[in-house]
Each structure stands twice: as structure tokens, then as C-alpha cells.
Amino acid sequence: MRLVTALLALGGLAYGGIVTYEGRDAVVGPGGPRPVADAARDSFLAAIGPAYFTLTFEGLPLGYAATLNFTTFHIDQVGTMATTGLNPNDAGVTTDTTTPRTLGYNTTPGGDTFVRFVPIFDIGTAGASLVFKSPIEFFGAYFTGLGTAAGSLNARFNNGTAQSLPVVGGIGGGVQFFGFTTFGAPITELDLVLEGVLGDTRDIYAIDDVITGLRPTFVPSTPEPATLALVGGAIALLAVLRRHHSRN
Prior knowledge:
Largest sheet: 7 strands, antiparallel
Number of domains: 1
Structural class: alpha+beta
Distance between the termini: 81 Å
Order of helices and strands: HEHEEEEHEEEEEEEEH
Strand content: 35-45%
Shape: globular
Number of helices: 4
Radius of gyration: 21 Å
């Protein structure tokens, strides 16, 4: 497997084509050994060189958000729900450890936070869309809980030609690394979407340790103007009540 990866990397770099790096350790839970996934990540890192940044999601506010904003890109949830229905706050940015091999888990050493995508039943297509403010030429991440129910994950982007790369999980879940390079043909958007989410099952999956060439500084969401007006009004009313109370 390593020999094949090395040969593909050589050809891809020489001709400016897409090279994928994939490795899966089936039915592996949090903290378990992942030699195949880590070997794929190491090959990927060797190909991209030292100029990369890793988004671990550690320290982010927990909970579901339709969009996670960073200074250099944003991640949108597409066709997803705010909970699996098993626990509160177990979708989106989460530390939930319910059935991790099939629902996903943290892959950052010493960490506990990751992002989980919970498709709406019978939605057809669901998952994540990453939109970059500057073009990127490589992407990599750990995927967990993939392949246990309805839906097939594909990495879709356009580097001058529409591309769709399968990210293949397994029936028992586990952990895998998936990455690709597209040197000489950068992209500005990447869709990581499940297709074929039909009927009363859906494949819940998670991502962590996202690697790109952009530094991802989190940008907290700001309240809508109407919300700010309500807050301002409440503060003004409180001040009036305090003055009135102090006179009596």
C-alpha cells in the first residue's frame, strides 16, 4: 500500500494531477491504534511539505451551528440536524462519546472535540461544504464513524474540471485518513457530502484534524442587529429601573 501511494505521489506531482492518500482502520474507537490511517496521513504530510495548518476544533464553542466561521474559510452544514436524538449537544462541534465507532469521535491526541454531521432522514444529500477565501492545493482530515448506514461520502470540487473522489468507510465504522493534493490546479470550495441518504437510516460521520495551507483562526458569530437592539433595550430598561429604585 505504501509503495502504491509513493508511486502515485510521484506521478501526480510530475503531471500536476490529483493524488489521494487514504487509509482506514476498521472498528477502531477513541485512543485505539490506527496504523493504516496514520501511515496515509504521514505520506500526505510528506507530499505537502511543512507549510500547513491543522484545525483541531479544540476550544470552539460546543453545539450545532449552520456555519463555522474562520478567518480563512468557513464550514457549512448541509441537510443536517442539530442532534442525533440520543443526547443534547451531540451534533456539530461536540465532545459526545456515544457509540463513537459508528457516530464519530475526536482524533486529536490529548483533545476531546470534533465536528459531527447528522443527516436529516431521507434528505438525499447531506454533509459539509468548505469555502476557502484563498485557493488551496491540498486537503486532509480524519473521518470517523463513516460507512455504517445509508449514504456514500464523496469529496467534490472543481480544479478546472469537476471532480468527485469517493471516501469509502466500512460497516463497522472506525477511523480513516483521507487527503488529496491538486498541485497546479487550486480550488476554492470543497463539498464533503453524503449522497443517497434515503429512507429511515442515515450515515452519521465526523471529521477532525483538518489540514490545509490556511491558518484557521475561529471567528465567533455576532448577534443579528435585531438581537443587539433587544439586548440594548433591556440594558436601558434595567438602568431606568435601578435609578427609580434608588430614589425610593
